[in-house]
Design goal:
CATH architecture of the largest domain in chain A: 3-Layer(aba) Sandwich
Distance between the termini of chain A: 23 Å
Distance between the termini of chain B: 20 Å
Largest sheet of chain A: 4 strands, parallel
Helix content of chain B: 40-55%
Radius of gyration of chain A: 20 Å
Strand content of chain B: 5-15%
Number of helices of chain A: 10
CATH class of the largest domain in chain A: Alpha Beta
Number of strands of chain A: 7
Structural class of chain A: alpha/beta
Helix content of chain A: 40-55%
Structural class of chain B: alpha/beta
CATH class of chain B: Alpha Beta
Oligomer: heterodimer
Radius of gyration of chain B: 14 Å
Strand order of the largest sheet of chain B: 2-1-3-4
Shape of chain B: globular
Largest interface: A-B, 33 and 32 residues
CATH architecture of chain B: 3-Layer(aba) Sandwich
Strand order of the largest sheet of chain A: 2-1-3-4
Shape of chain A: elongated
Strand content of chain A: 5-15%
CATH topology of the largest domain in chain A: Rossmann fold
Number of domains of chain A: 2
Number of helices of chain B: 6
Largest sheet of chain B: 4 strands, parallel
Chain lengths: 248, 146
């Protein structure tokens, strides 16, 4: 099986600008992303996610997510569930504030001291959840290769079928024609790259293997297996031709 | 929404890019500093996920969107939610007009980013004044409140 991009945790913050708790969610998310677990987390951009950003939605199907919401309306958790899948974990700022007996949170634009304390506590809780989701217990992130770096090497091809998340979550997706309709396959560029590097050339056995690996990350209806296999064989052959010609 | 506030501002809400931070800072500058009595923020996620209060605010008042980048998520989502965007602004356009103000930082903007947000906010505030004149039903003019 190819070594696919490193497993990470997606952080979705509600970011609600109209209330201080929304700002707490945003500050906490950034603290995790930039300071506490920079190599193990990526941000999932909520507006892009809502607006149909396939890269972000693909990421949330592919990797576990933690939703950080300012209030009980749980916009981030609900949006993640609506468009990708149930978040692996969900935190509500107002609950953290209540549980820790913090004073009133004020300042949507600039948080007061209680707000900053809340952001710290939420960030620590999220970092713990990240460790749990990655099968660790409290240790810091490992400074190894990250999804963005791997993904950054995958260029958009001349037909514009390979795309990446616009806000840096970095999972490559590729649009492929299956039975006359266009489907988006998560991680396909990375799968192709790994197959090619492993010396697997287009052909019967490789096609079947491609189908099996692609199925791990994408739902393939049993009745459409043959059509998917045909599409994967065609696209992989195209990919290999480009590598031979040195076309990126 | 307060009865006197007649214009809604919807910023992009993105937290992954500097331009998203500038859009949010510009929105805060409008509603807190420049036109506190006329303009009010509505969060994009609330609107899109069907919050009644957010939807009513956008339905009943002219709406200005401030997008970070060319993907224009705020504008797109207001329109796809069935509402009209009265004016739309993007940080990218503002930056094109002010190349010397290159924004950097996400958690906290560099001084150039803060200036860019201010410049953009001033443009938005002018649009707020124009729209407030067109829709004067809910109160007096606040155009001089800056």
């Amino acid at each position: 099986m190819p070594i696919l991009p490193k497993k990470k945790v997606g952080i979705v913050a509600c970011s609600g600008e109209e209330m201080p708790e929304g700002t707490v969610s945003r500050v906490a998310a950034l603290k995790v992303l930039e300071e506490l677990r920079p190599n193990d987390t990526v941000t999932i951009c909520l507006p892009l996610f809502l607006a149909g950003g396939e890269g972000d939605r693909a990421f949330a199907r592919f990797y576990p997510t933690v939703a950080i919401d300012g209030c009980e309306k749980r916009c981030a958790a609900r949006a993640t569930e609506m468009y990708s899948g149930k978040p692996a974990a969900s935190i509500v700022v107002t609950e953290v504030v209540r549980r820790n007996g913090l004073g009133p949170i004020r300042g949507s634009r600039r948080l007061n001291e209680a707000g900053m304390q809340a952001a710290d506590l939420v960030a620590q809780e999220v970092a713990r959840l990240v460790d749990q989701l990655l099968g660790r217990t409290g240790q810091k992130a490992t400074p190894e290769a990250v999804v963005e770096e791997a993904a950054a090497e995958v260029p958009e091809d001349e037909e514009g079928t390979i795309t990446l998340c616009s806000c840096g979550s970095g999972i490559p997706v590729q649009k492929v024609s299956v039975n006359g309709r266009v489907v988006t396959l998560i991680a396909l560029p990375a799968i192709f790259e790994q197959f090619y590097k492993a010396g697997k050339r287009p052909g019967g056995g490789t096609t079947q293997e491609l189908l099996e690996v692609t199925r791990i990350y994408n739902p393939i209806p049993p009745e459409e297996e043959a059509a998917y296999a045909e599409a994967l064989a065609r696209e992989y052959e195209k990919y290999c031709r480009k590598q031979v010609k040195g076309v990126p | 929404m307060s009865p006197n506030r007649r214009v809604v501002i919807v910023p992009c809400s993105g937290i992954g890019k500097t331009f998203g931070t500038v859009s949010r800072e510009a929105a805060y500058t409008v509603v807190e500093d420049l036109r506190p009595d006329t303009a009010e923020l509505v969060a994009l996620s609330l609107l899109v996920l069907g919050d009644e209060e957010a939807r009513a605010a956008v339905a009943e008042h002219p709406t200005i969107t401030i997008d970070g980048c060319r993907l224009a998520c705020a504008t797109k989502m207001v329109q796809e939610s069935g509402f009209t965007v009265a004016r739309s602004f993007t940080v990218l356009d503002a930056f094109r007009k002010h190349r010397d103000l290159k924004p950097e930082g996400i958690s906290s903007l560099n001084p150039e980013g803060q200036k860019l947000a201010r410049v953009l906010a001033e443009e938005v505030a002018e649009a707020v004044d124009e729209l407030a004149k067109v829709y004067p039903d809910n109160g007096g003019s606040d155009a001089d409140s800056a």
